[in-house]
Design brief:
The complex is a heterodimer of chains A (307) and B (205). With 307 residues, chain A is of the alpha+beta class. Chain A has a single domain (11-298), classed as Alpha-Beta Complex (Sulfite Oxidase, Chain A, domain 2). In chain A, 16% of the residues lie in helices and 21% in strands. In chain A, strands 3, 4, 7, 8, 9, 11 and 12 form a 7-stranded mixed β-sheet that branches. In chain A, strands 2-1-10-5-6 form a 5-stranded mixed β-sheet. Chain B is an all-alpha fold. Chain B has one domain. Chain B has 9 helices and no strands. Classes of the chains: A alpha+beta (307), B mainly alpha (205). Chains A and B meet through loops of A and helix 4 of B.
């Protein structure tokens, strides 16, 4: 059962996504025409989202850290590489291919894919598998609302996601560090959980490329790498899909990859984390502190085995 | 320029070169240029420079031999002591800053995490080499014993490479490059050793 939480703002306060997407295209178009508009940040568009009861009131990580310290191997392996190299990525036009076990497959323009879904602000904790964390104010849409429209069938037991594969614009893809394109997946009930969103912005603006523009998954109870960036394909599938890190090191990165301080990475502890900007490490919380919303998804499962 | 002046200048240059990465790190820290996760960056940089200097130290003897510049050997101690300094700072930052003296967590790390076990072992083995680096210690031990003890470095440097290799997430290229260099430097020693043995096959002992 899905319960929708509107928040205090009316839909009139929220930027209709059709409008901002058209503006985005317009502005990138202008930049492309060679006018004096710098590529990256200048094409960012202001967004507004309704507050959500799922948001944390913890101190937000500064914007420059959220946008300057990224793991996005398509743009390089160092944390600073994505911010440096992602400017080349063309995010408009952008299409999303929907296929697999659903009644309405097809390739949709991003604006159509998002149409009719008012933006919400979701301030979430993000816990990286490497042992650091942030608090990020995302703007996005519940994934469930987006997916239901394509009428997944009873065979849709999992949802698989794919990132764009475009080595010319994503220099990191020229080396086989991971299996490209980057893939991720969720069980269908995980995907339909109200915490799971497709984010299109952060800090009141469209996503910077290094954060997964134009649209990325955010599943805050899982390690950051599950929240796949720059999503261009979504498939409803019957079998557990391949996921990039699981393929790369199956012993180290499981399909579920729920944040769990009791299940260590084989090579390092997951009991604590460093919140970016803080000096002392803090204890890592089970399901990254989202147990109330998601623990029921894993009832009866051995989380040591299904890590 | 007298030979003595030149020697002093070269020596100062070696010192400065060894110190430069540390100064650069401090400078960037002072200017807030260490990024969003400065503690992680400092630990990583100190570790990488410790390993690099250990490798340079391992390269001194082959270089002196191959370039026929035996006087290069006198830099080996300086380089080794700087390597130890970086490794010590690397470890101290991990203990005192990253883990903030959480001895339980550190203990668990040492026991459970092979990369930390190996790194710690390499550090422990480095200590006697550092302690016996003085002229007095060399005299006291005698050259044969001293040399034997300092062969520990052939274990320590590969351990450092393994320590690095085991902690990277996906990009194994840098530790593999260091590993290859170390393999060449140790391989040269094996080859030299075998070459020296050959011409005079030992009679039954």
């Amino acid at each position: 059962m899905l319960i929708r939480h509107g928040g205090d703002l009316t839909e009139n306060d929220v930027t209709p996504q059709g409008v901002y997407l058209r503006r985005r295209e317009f502005m990138t178009g202008v930049a492309g025409a060679g006018l004096a508009l710098a590529a990256g940040p200048a094409s960012a568009v202001a967004l507004k989202g309704a507050p959500s009861r799922y948001s944390t009131d913890e101190k937000k990580t500064p914007r420059e850290d959220v946008t300057g310290y990224n793991n996005f191997y398509e743009f390089g392996l160092d944390k600073e590489d994505p911010a440096r190299n992602a400017g080349k990525l063309k995010v408009a036009p952008w299409t999303v291919k929907i296929d697999g076990a659903c009644n309405k497959p097809g390739t949709y323009d991003l604006a159509d894919f998002l149409r009719g879904n008012p933006l919400q602000e979701r301030i979430y904790r993000l816990r990286c598998v490497e042992g650091w964390s942030m608090v990020i104010p995302w703007l996005g849409v519940p994934l469930a609302d987006l997916l239901k429209r394509y009428e997944p069938t009873s065979k849709a037991r999992y949802v698989a996601f794919e990132t764009l594969y475009r080595p010319a614009e994503m220099p990191g893809q020229r080396r086989p560090v991971l299996e490209w394109p980057y893939r991720e997946g969720l069980r269908i009930d995980e995907a339909m959980n109200p915490l799971a969103i497709m984010a299109v912005g952060l800090y009141g603006e469209t996503l910077p490329n290094q954060n997964g523009a134009p649209m990325r998954l955010v599943v805050p109870w899982k390690y950051g790498f599950k929240s796949i960036k720059s999503v261009t394909r979504i498939s409803f599938v019957e079998k557990q899909p391949r996921t990039a890190w699981n393929v790369s090191a199956p012993r180290e990165y499981g399909f579920y990859s729920n944040v769990n301080p009791e299940v260590d990475h084989p090579r390092w502890s997951q009991a604590s984390e460093r919140r970016i900007g803080e000096f002392r490490r803090r204890e890592t919380l089970m399901f990254n502190g989202y147990g109330e919303q998601v623990a029921s998804l894993y009832r009866g499962m051995d989380l040591k085995k299904n890590f | 320029m007298s030979r003595e002046t030149r020697d002093r200048l070269v020596y100062a240059a070696v010192w400065l070169a060894c110190l430069a990465p540390l100064l650069w790190l401090v400078w960037r820290g002072y200017n807030g240029e260490l990024g969003a996760n400065p503690i992680e960056k400092v630990i990583r940089q100190l570790g990488v420079w410790g390993l690099r200097l250990l490798i340079v130290g391992l390269a001194v003897t082959p270089a002196a031999r191959l370039l026929k510049m035996p006087r290069l050997i006198r830099f080996r101690r300086t380089i080794g002591l700087f390597a130890f300094t970086y490794v010590l700072l690397h470890l101290s930052t991990y203990i005192g800053v990253d883990q903030f003296f959480n001895w339980t967590a550190i203990g668990k790390d040492i026991v459970k995490r092979p990369y930390i076990t190996i790194g710690m072992a390499a550090f422990v083995l480095l200590v006697p080499l550092t302690v016996t680096s003085t002229n007095w210690a060399i005299r006291k031990l005698g050259p044969v014993k001293w040399r034997k003890l300092h062969r520990l470095i052939y274990l320590i440097v590969p351990a450092g490479v393994v320590h690095y290799f085991l902690l990277v997430k996906a990009d194994t290229r840098p530790p593999l490059i260091y590993g290859a260099i170390v393999a060449v430097l140790l391989g040269w020693r094996v080859w030299e050793w075998a070459r020296k043995r050959k011409p005079a096959p030992k009679a039954a002992a």
